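Lecture notes, part 5. Sequence design as translation. It can be helpful to think of inverse folding as translation between two languages: the language of shapes and the language of residues. The source text, in structure tokens, appears below.
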């Protein structure tokens, strides 16, 4: 099973702009055999949050082999040409290690910050991904869209990967699953997607026709993860910082349909996660592989968890996957 490590980008004034903990985790994940380090995106986050694209560049420079992925970039907030150019150059600088994961976004504050209205987000998303994909794969692109018009545009250099970096898309409703099959190469779940819902959603995603030029149909599960000597040790280390994170999510996701899942108890959270002893985590990995997952992205460190605990868990998961 291919594993990804979702890095904690929460910053405090004392941490910025070093990202030292994330670099240490990324290097250890590389040594442990993880497939990707994975970054998310957030704006208007009062405690602090490191910007996604510059953080990816920094982490690419501090690692050698591990894939660098996003889950995900809020595509409607970006000018497509800027995004295509930046990610293409990052693929070149990293030696062809980029996987670009996107999401629609859900926070009204973020859309307002970028001058985007929420009803526009689907049209902007599709337009953005079409332009990005074409600029990555075509010698010259002209495009007249609702939000973007370009004439005889091209990228130089184009991405190092051929024919292009892989694209992921995250979301849970049928329209997102269809769009992912049509425009992208992999579907990423939410961290709070229920195990009971996954088989039907995976089957639905795989049932939709693949769009021309897509590169497959990966299923990538995002999961809370913590591996410790015993399940009691795992809960004792993880529960308080994870509960603090979920409490914060209830405010951030007040406009999202899944907000209620962040008020659930420990047993509900553990039932959709990889938390426990090595044997328990190995069993959960096998469970998700049988379900049809091609990879699992683990969020090991909620804000506030000590670095030493994170590093031990990364090593433990690395031993399970090798």
């Amino acid at each position: 099973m291919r594993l990804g490590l979702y890095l904690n980008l929460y910053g405090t004034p004392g941490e910025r702009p070093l990202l030292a903990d994330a670099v240490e985790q990324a290097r250890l994940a590389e040594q442990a055999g993880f497939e990707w380090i994975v970054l998310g995106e957030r704006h208007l986050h009062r405690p602090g949050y490191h910007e996604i694209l510059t953080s990816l560049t920094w982490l690419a420079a501090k690692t050698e082999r591990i894939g660098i992925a996003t889950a995900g970039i809020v595509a409607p907030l970006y000018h497509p040409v800027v995004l295509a150019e930046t990610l293409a150059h990052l693929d070149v600088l990293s030696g062809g290690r980029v996987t670009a994961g996107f999401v629609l976004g859900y926070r009204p504050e973020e859309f307002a910050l970028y001058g985007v209205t929420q009803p526009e987000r689907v049209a902007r998303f599709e337009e953005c991904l079409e332009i990005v994909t074409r600029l990555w794969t075509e010698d010259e692109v002209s495009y007249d869209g609702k939000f973007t018009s370009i004439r005889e545009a091209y990228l130089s250099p184009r991405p190092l990967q051929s024919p292009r970096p892989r694209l992921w898309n995250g979301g849970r409703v049928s329209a997102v699953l269809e769009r992912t099959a049509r425009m992208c190469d992999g579907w990423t779940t939410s961290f709070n997607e229920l195990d009971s819902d996954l088989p039907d959603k995976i089957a639905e995603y795989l049932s939709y026709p693949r769009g021309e030029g897509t590169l497959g149909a990966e299923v990538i599960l995002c999961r809370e993860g913590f591996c410790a000597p015993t399940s009691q040790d795992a809960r004792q280390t993880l529960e308080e910082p994870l509960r603090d994170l979920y409490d914060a999510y209830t405010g951030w996701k007040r406009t999202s349909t899944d907000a209620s899942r962040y008020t659930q108890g420990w047993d509900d959270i553990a039932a959709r996660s990889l938390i426990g002893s090595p044997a328990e985590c190995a069993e959960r990995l096998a469970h998700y592989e049988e379900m049809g997952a091609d990879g699992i992205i683990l969020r090991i460190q909620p804000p506030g968890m000590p670095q030493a605990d994170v590093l031990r868990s990364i090593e433990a998961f690395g031993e399970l996957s090798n």
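The translated text above is only one of many valid answers, since several sequences can fold into similar shapes. Residues 2-321 form a domain with the TIM Barrel fold (CATH 3.20.20.30).
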